[in-house]
Amino acid sequence: MIQLTNIEKYYANKGVKNYVLRLVTTTINQGEFVSIMGPSGAGKSTLLNIIGMLEEPTYGIYNFLGEDVTNLNERKRIELYRNHIGFVFQAYHLIDEMTVYENIEAPLLYKKVGSGERASRIADLLDRFNMVAKKDLFPNQLSGGQQQLVGIARALAAQPSIILADEPTGNLQSAQAEEIMSLFKKLNEEEGITIIQVTHSEKNAQYGSRILHIADGLIKEDVAVTA
Amino acid sequence: MLKLNLKIAWRNLWKNKVYAAINILGLALGLTAFVLMILYINHEESYDKWSPELKNVYQIREKHDFFTPDNKEHWNEVSNSRIANLIRTKLPQAVAVTKVDNDWDFGSGYSVKTENADPVMVNNIKDSDSSFFKVFDYQFVQGSADKALENKNTIVLKEDLALKLFGTTRALGKTIRMIRWRDDKGNLLTVTGIVSEPKSPQSVGFSAIVRTGNKDKDPDEPTNNNYCLMYAKLNKASDTLVLNQTLQKLYVDFKKNLLKGQKQDDEDIHKPEKVPGLKVIPLENVHSNPPYTLSWFEKLKPVMAISAFLLLVSIINFINLATAQSVQRAKEVGVKKVLGSYKRQLTAQFLIESGLQSLISLFLCIVLIEMVLPTFNQQFNVALSFWHNAKLFVLIAQLLGLFVFVTLLSGLYPAWILSNYNPVAVLKGNYENGLRGIALRNVLVVFQFVISVTFIISIGVMEMQSRFMSNKDLGFERGNLINIETGYEDKFAERLKKIPGVQYVATTTQVLGNSFNVPEEIQYKGKPIKLNTVTVTMDALPALGMKVLQGRIFSKEYKSDTVNTVVLNEAAANLFGKNLLGQTYQKTDWQGKNNIFQVVGIIKNYHNEGFDKAVLPTVYKVTKLGGTSNTNNLLVRFNTAHYREIISKIEKEWKIMYPNFPMVYTSLEDAFSKSLEENRQFMNMIILFSLVSVSLSLLGLFALSTFVAKRKTKEIAVRKVLGASNIQIVSLLNKSFLILVIVANLVSWPIAYIIIKKWLEGFAYRIEMPFVPFVTATLISLIIAILTVSIQARKAAITDPVNALKYE
Ligand SMILES: Nc1ncnc2c1ncn2[C@@H]1O[C@H](COP(=O)(O)OP(=O)(O)O)[C@@H](O)[C@H]1O
Ligand SMILES: [Mg+2]
User: What was the pLDDT predicted at B679?
Assistant: First the structure.
């Protein structure tokens, strides 16, 4: 599903190239649950952003669903966002002016899903995440964990084939973090959604099927998780 | 999607209530000035467009120098009445030609009597001929256009007047006695038609059209001319250029024939400047092409520019605030982009938001207009209306256009800024580049203040010029002096002189409020001099309280004063040269006879028109030698300031002499105020605009400083922890804004200087360019800017730093 070949990323500063990633090559298959780990500043987020096409690599080839997406135009990229990729952020990034319901609905509107279908999907998600009673609240009326649940519900609404999550539990207490992690695991196992997450916690990484250890812009280790 | 976007827009407005209110209020103010302007322009544009038939109607204009304000040749609306017949007989396209009275500035109308009722003065009754309603397509409520003026001594009333005189519009066949001057026997007129008031204004306005018969014929004597307005209806709309060539040729031939045998005048025709001129202009262009003054469009141009400017300023506020606020929306943009929103969808969303605000502003503007229209109408002497507008549809279309324009102008830039946010930057959290566009915002603030400061300076100078004019020595004593609107008659004058308290009774053709210029050319020591002639009675100059500079003014003791003596004003004396007293000059009259006049005195120039016009070189004479003129001025000077009682005594005398005609008079004090009126109105308008402009700038500054104060909360907190005092923090915030205001002042000084210089040049009598208003304006702008910014800065300064640091 995802094929990275010799990906490089650097920031040029006063003529000096500061490498964030160098020669990253890896393949991630449909249905995997990958955790990216490494020290702060190692380039984890950058790698995830490149996978999510939010950033472009300075060098290398990136294949997504068998298609070269290294230099993608806006229209194509947005099509991929609408149909294949769901993002989950550490800071949740819900839209403050929209209610829980509207936040979840937003991607469906962009995808032009019909109103009946929309309502039933949202109802389904709210039900699954136990948020029915909270659907008319605004984000600032929710706890952090609840906000992240909404964030995930929003990512799932468009029924993506892959979810990219950058430290999804970074701002949460461990009980809430566990809830999110088991949710991810369930989604991965029951619905076959590919998940790539960045995490600092060894414990969270155990929920996945594979761990990429990154340091100094290189993949130092690529290990499978044994249950 | 649209619904959701509207919802978000609404929630955002609500969340930022203060900003939104400022935005909307500011925009509403700017729109109000602009829409008022549109209403006014629509009104002026709608002149003479009440019927499609008017497309083929033309006004006749002749080139001549009679009655022109500067005694020079102009294309006049008031033309030689013979032209009507000429066109009727020689121009095949002409279907109908009509002659009608002009509106004269002075004169309050005719006295009208119905049966046994008291006489009432009615304005705007015009004498015309049988063709009037064949040229002008009026809607007859009673009677018909063909028959109404078929016979002499008939009158057609507008509905309003019919109601006023008879209490009903069913007045056909009733009779009216119309008395045109105090000892006129009057005409008995039969009402033969009632017409309704057209929806749009008319350049030939009237309350009634009469046919006395005077307009049916031209004077027999070829050198005697009548002057009136003339309109022709042609069988089809024609090319005016071709038409005018034909007319010009016709007229030159006609004049040659007419003056055959009048040797001297005949030669005149061949002098290049004396070629007769005749042309027509389409009726629809008449109102926008007045003969001597600037057209309404030209007059309005500066005002239009100002109101467009104000609209621009309010839009600038809008843009400024929207971009300043855009940081708050950055996250929304970033998230939506990764959820799969196109950039143009985001642009559309933000345009919808500005659209929502401009829509609210537009409604507010309509409310504001409803509120200010009555005052506006009164100030500018118009009858504008919003809902009862004849062309409401056009107006609504214009407003829609304005709405789209304002939305795009105010929304596009912020929408572009917003939709360009890079999602990665935003989602990483470092979207603190709200300082983007700070340079532009600064430029905009400067621009607003340039306008405001220019306005404040202008007000200052205008106020000084007005004060100068109200206090200027007019050269005559305007107190205790009234002008009765009637001709001089010895019998009546003698009776008035007997009333105690009456000092002088006199007449002149030149007095503030009613000046009649008669140009002449004289020969002095072989050199020609152009003068303005004024006929007076013995007492006129003392009655006006004239100041004598040299020699004497007229007096009964000198027999020669009824023979050939004249008094000059200073302006005329300057044309003659020195040692003038006792000298003589000659003037050849139209019969070729030489008349000799002797100068016996020189008086100080006195003002008989507004201060925009220079006093003409004028000669005053009592003698009939060389011809006289007279106008309806009867000056009465009192020797006491308490002359109310005396006036009622005069009115009693009047009633005895002229029972059928009410007495009409003005005090010279009022005439003077009236001459300042136009300037006063203009100034009020500028003050109004300035208020709008200054409040807009302050609103903008207020909002921007609020925003900056908020943005700097953390910086302020840190500084406070480090020991900064509140005052230090307030001045920290003030500094950056003050620089902008100072820059604005520097820019506006030269701009104001140029504009004001030009304005002052419009006055023949004016003040020197003053310096004080410039300094004052700068001080005012600095003080109010400091006050505005400090309100916000203080708030930021006194908040507890702990809160700010904890939650950032
Ligand atoms: N816009 C940028 N300009 C320069 N350097 C950057 C930029 N964005 C990120 N970096 C650098 O790239 C490196 C990797 O960042 P990141 O991928 O966010 O690390 P992390 O592994 O903590 O997620 C960091 O050292 C950071 O300083
Ligand atoms: Mg990171």
Answer: 82
Q: What is the pLDDT of residues B486-544, one digit of tens each?
A: 888 888 899 999 999 999 999 998 888 888 878 888 889 888 999 999 999 988 999 99
Q: Are residues B663 and B774 in the same domain?
A: no
B111 and B238 share one domain: yes
Closest by CA position to B784, among listed B729, B744, B724: B744
ipTM metric: 0.85
Residue B806 has pLDDT above 50, yes or no: no
Let me know whether B97 and B215 are in one domain: yes
Mean pLDDT, residues A122-147: 92
Q: Is B2 on the interface with A (CB under 8 A)?
A: no
Whether B257 and B359 share a structural domain: no
The residue whose C-alpha atom lies closest to atom 3 belonging to ligand 1 is A11
The total of structural domains in chain B comes to 4
Beta carbons of B338 and A45 less than 8 Å apart: no
pLDDT in tens, B339-392: 888 888 888 888 888 898 899 999 999 999 999 888 888 877 778 888 777 778
Is the Cβ of B10 closer than 8 Å to some Cβ of chain A?
Answer: no
User: For residue B611, which of B757, B469, B458, B479 has the smallest C-alpha distance?
Assistant: B469
Q: How far is B438 from chain A (nearest CA, A)?
A: 25
What residues of A are in contact with residue B339 (Cβ under 8 Å)?
81-82, 87, 106-107, 110, 154, 158
* Residue at a domain's end among B671, B694, B726: B671
Sole residue written with tokens 């804004």:
B737
Closest-lying ligand 1 atom to the alpha carbon of residue A38: 21
Measured between CA atoms, how close is B436 to chain A, in angstroms?
Answer: 21
Does the pLDDT value for residue A135 go beyond 60? yes
- Mean pLDDT, chain B, integer: 85
Q: Within this chain, do residues B718 and B661 fall inside the same structural domain, yes or no?
A: no
The pick from A13, A14, A18, A89 for probing ligand 1's pocket by mutation, whose C-beta has the most ligand atoms within 8 angstroms, reads A18
Q: Is the pLDDT of residue B676 over 80?
A: yes
> Which residue shows structure tokens 């809902």?
B387
Ligand 2 centroid to residue A40 C-alpha, Å: 7
A108: exposed, middle or buried (C-beta count within 10 Å: 0-12, 13-18, 19+)?
Answer: buried
Confidence of residue B219 (pLDDT cuts 50, 70, 90): confident
What's this model's pTM, rounded to 2 decimal places?
0.74
pLDDT tier, B108 (very low <50, low <70, confident <90, very high otherwise): low
**Domain boundary residue, one of B650, B671, B692:** B671
Residue B558 belongs to a domain = yes
More confident residue, B429 or B741: B741
The answer to whether position B127 is within a domain reads yes
A96 contacts in B (CB within 8 Å)? 331-332
Q: Is residue B88 part of a domain?
A: yes
CA distance B111 to B127: 14
Strand pairing class (B594-603; B565-569): parallel
Same domain, B657 and B742: no
Sign of dihedral through CA atoms B25, B27, B29, B31? negative
Taking only residues 50 to 79 of chain A, the set having a beta carbon closer than 8 angstroms to any beta carbon of chain B reads 52, 54-55, 74-75, 78-79
At residue B118, what is the residue type?
A: D
- Measure the CA angle with vertex B76, ends B71 and B79; round to 5°: 105
Cβ(A45) to ligand 1 under 6 A? yes
A115: nearest CA in chain B?
A: B1
Among A49, A102, A107, whose Cβ lies nearest the Cβ of B4?
Answer: A102
> Could you write out the three-class secondary structure of B679-722?
HHHHHHHHHHHHHHHHHHHHHHHHHHHHHHHHHCHHHHHHHHHC
- The answer to whether residues B512 and B643 belong to one domain is yes
Percent with pLDDT over 70 in chain B: 94
pLDDT digits (tens, 9 = 90+) for B494-505: 999 999 999 999
Which residues constitute the domain of residue B707? Answer: 438-473+672-808
- How confident is the model over A50-65, as a mean pLDDT? 91
A39 Cβ inside 6 Å of ligand 1: no
Whether residue B420 is found in the same domain as residue B445: no
Q: Is B16 on the interface with A (CB under 8 A)?
A: no
Mutual orientation of helices B2-15 and A100-110 as an angle, nearest 10°? 140
Flag whether B293 is in a domain. Answer: no
